[in-house]
Every structure is written in structure tokens, then in C-alpha cells.
Amino acid sequence: MTASAPQDFLPFVRPNIDDATIAEVGKVLASGWITSGPKVQAFEATLSDLFGGRPVRTFSNGSATMEIALRIADIGPGDEVITTPITWVATANVVLTVGARPVFVDIDPRTRNIDLDAVEAAITPRTRAIIPVYLSGLPVDMDRLYAIAKRHNLRVIEDAAQAIDSRWRGQRIGAFGDLVSFSFQANKNITTIEGGCLVMNSPEEAQRAERLRLQGVIRTGMDGMDVEEPGGKFNLTDVNAAIGLAQLQHLDAITARRAELAETYFRCAANAGLADLGIELPLPRDPDVATTNWHMFQVVLPTDRLRGGAAEARKHVMESMRESGIGTGVHYPPVHLFTYFRSLGWREGMLPHAERIGRGIVTLPMFPAMQTADVERVCATLSETCKRLSL
Ligand SMILES: *Cc1c(COP(=O)(O)O)cnc(C)c1O
Questions:
Q1: What is the position in ligand 1's atom list of the atom closest to the CA of 295?
Q2: What does the pLDDT look like over 241-277, one tens digit per residue?
Q3: Does 379 sit in the ligand 1 pocket, CB within 6 Å?
Q4: 251-389: CATH class
Q5: Which of 60, 88, 162, 190 has the most ligand 1 atoms within 8 A of CB, as the residue to mutate?
Q6: Cβ neighbours of residue 222 under 8 Å, at least 6 residues apart?
Q7: DSSP assignment of 25-86
Q8: Which of 34, 223, 356, 370, CA to CA, is 20 to 30 A from 265?
Q9: Cis bond upstream, residue 332 (ω within 30)
Q10: CA distances from 384 to 5, 282, 323, 378, 390 (A)
Q11: Tens-place pLDDT, residues 350-374
Q12: Is 196's C-beta closer than 6 angstroms to any atom of ligand 1?
């Protein structure tokens, strides 16, 4: 289908907030208790059920959640944390915030996730933790990840920001493992506008998380207050928690709808001949092993075959798509090449797969309210655009 008549702009993501959610928010605002309270407790209890009864605490955003996870794991100055450069920069920034050193390793170009062989090769006596990121919701090889962690006595802080309702061998991400961090930022599959949650191993870790999210304060009796370990201001509000509770009711439907849209994408991409144009599609799922929640549907452009080459091709494609009424995004440019990280010694050529994919990766529209015709339009427009910009 080609765009002849003007059509509505199709963004790459749009949150789904129903009337019931808006009504719930109104109730919280009218209740007289608007910051952390009963809704946060109910949200945490519901999340804990979702994650097999493991302890869960919520925070004001996913980055704060990661920072608390690092503190719970006692990661600090002198420690190295191995992670991927193809992520939202928060993943690396939180490592710096606690005073540790992020060590980037290359990605597996098929999954676009951290390469576990490279992880193992990067382990030194200072390595304390691994932060895998499940890009677009696709888990890494969880068996292998935890075997490496066990063999080298490392903590795992899973940046599962994008992976709510993704699965490994049928088990939900978060229902097993070490510290597992989720984000509920507006673009994620389930949102609280801003927010996050951490799945932990023990009531002791959960208690420490509660303290660290509110200045480290320990209350006893009616009037007792103490601080043993200073914390920050990272609590979620009841308004946000009410949104999250309402969203969670739709989790199954959201995941199912995204899977349908992904199937539609693969079918339309084949019809539009995207692979023949050199466009790399996501790794098809093996639903018995690593099941993605299709947080994003991302392709990698053949920048070397397109006008503008490595430096400009993606910009041209994205501009042209926007002119045709289709929004796209970049998730993500490789973190190690940002100016600050270059100042720590990271350079072009160090992580070639990440650098190539970071130049060509494009996020196509994907949200449950999309229709089959929207997917057809995206694939047809992308195909036309790449043909037009071919060298
Ligand atoms: C969204 C996201 C975060 C951070 O979450 P915020 O809630 O925006 O702070 C961290 N890592 C990844 C991979 C993300 O996608």
C-alpha cells in the first residue's frame, strides 16, 4: 500500500492508557494520599506474584532501579562491571554513579545482545558483575549467563528494562536469576509514566532497597529515626503505581498483540523484499527457548549500499520515512563512542559488531493499537525508500 492520500502520522511508539486507568488516577488524587502508599504496596505485591513470589520493590524510574541494584550488590570504586555498548546510556551511567568502571564488550550481531564469549574473555580479578541488556525484549542465553557468573563468582544485574513478560525456556524473565531490573518509562510495554522495579533474592535485600530509596531512613516505634547507610529519593508515587496496576491487567493481551504484529512484520517484510535489499530483520524467535516480548521491532540498514554511507545513510532513510508520515527511532548508538566514554579510552574499532549495528539500526513503529495496514505501510515505505536511496 502506498501513501497517496494524506494519512495520520504513525509514531514508533504510543502508550495505551484506557479510561479505567484515568479513573483510577482520579481516585488516587482525590484520596488524600498521593505519594508512596497503598497503591505502591499493591503494585509491588502484584509484581511479586508475576515474578514467582520473589521480593519486588518499585522506584521512581528504571535508572534509579539499576543504581539501587548496584548498591545492593555492593559494587563500588575499584570494581569492574561488564556490559554492552548497544543500550540506553543509563546502563553505563549507573555504573559510573556508584564509582565503578563499565567494561564494554562486543555484541552478537545476530541477537544484537551482549556476546557471552566476549564477556568471559573480559573477566579480570576486578570484575564484580555482569549487566546484560535484553535489547527489544530478547533475553540472552540465560543458562550460559548464569553458568559464567557462577564459575567466576560474579553478581548479575539484569537490565530487563525492556523485557517485561519475555521468557526463557517458558519462565518469565524476573522469575529467576539474581537482581532483575525493569523500567516502566512511557515507551515500555507496561508504563507508570516513569518508574521501575527490582526483583531481588531475599527479604534482607528488599529491606535494604526500601531504605536506599528513601534517604536510608530506618524508622522504629512512633518517633524513632536512624540512618546507617545514606540513600536517595527514589520512591514511586501512588499515582504512578495506580497506572501500573491498571496496565498490568492488560499484560497478556499486550504481549500477545505485539507477537501478532511481529508476525505481520515478518510477512510484510518478505512481501516487500526487505531482505533482498540487504535490510537485516530481527532474529526469528524460537518460542521454546528465548521468547521476546517484542518491545521493539528493529531492522539494520545496509548503510554501505545507501546514499550517505556509514555516516549519513540512516539519517536520510529516517527523514524520508518521516516525510511519508512514519516515525522511527534509534536504539541505540554505541555508548562507548560517546565523548565521555572516549575520554575513558574507548575508541572506534574496539567493538566492531556494535559499531556497525549501531550505525544501521532503526526502530520501526510497534505498539498494540497498530493495525495490519500500518505494518504493511511501514514495510512498503521502507522498501521504496531504500530503493530510492540505493547507490
Ligand atoms: C528504559 C531503559 C532504561 C532506563 O529506564 P528509565 O526508566 O528511563 O530510567 C535502562 N536500560 C534500558 C535498556 C532501557 O531501555
A1: 15
A2: 999 999 999 999 999 999 999 999 999 999 999 999 9
A3: no
A4: alpha beta
A5: 88
A6: none
A7: HHHHHHHT--SSSHHHHHHHHHHHHHTTT--EEEESSHHHHHHHHHHHTT--TT-EEEE-SS
A8: 356
A9: yes
A10: 17, 20, 13, 10, 10
A11: 999 999 999 999 999 999 999 999 9
A12: yes
Q: Answer yes or no: is the C-beta of 133 below 6 A from any ligand 1 atom.
A: yes
Q: What spacing in Å lies between the alpha carbon of 32 and ligand 1's midpoint?
A: 31
Q: Is 162 in the pocket of ligand 1 (CB under 6 A)?
A: yes
pLDDT at 1 over 50: no
pLDDT-above-70 percentage for the chain: 98
Residue 288 has pLDDT above 90, yes or no: no
Give the closest residue (by CA) to ligand 1 atom 5.
62
The model's pTM: 0.97
pLDDT of residue 179: 99
Q: What would the grid cell of residue 224 be?
A: 524513632
Would you say the CB of residue 189 lies under 6 angstroms from ligand 1? no
Total residue length of the chain: 391
What pLDDT does 6 receive?
56
Cα-to-centroid distance, 88 and ligand 1 (Å): 6
Question: pLDDT tens digit string along 29-43?
Answer: 999 999 999 999 999
Q: Write down the domain spans for the chain.
A: 19-248, 251-389
Confidence of residue 286 (pLDDT cuts 50, 70, 90): confident
**Which whole-number Å values give the CA distances from 20 to 105, 238, 256, in the listed order?**
44, 16, 21
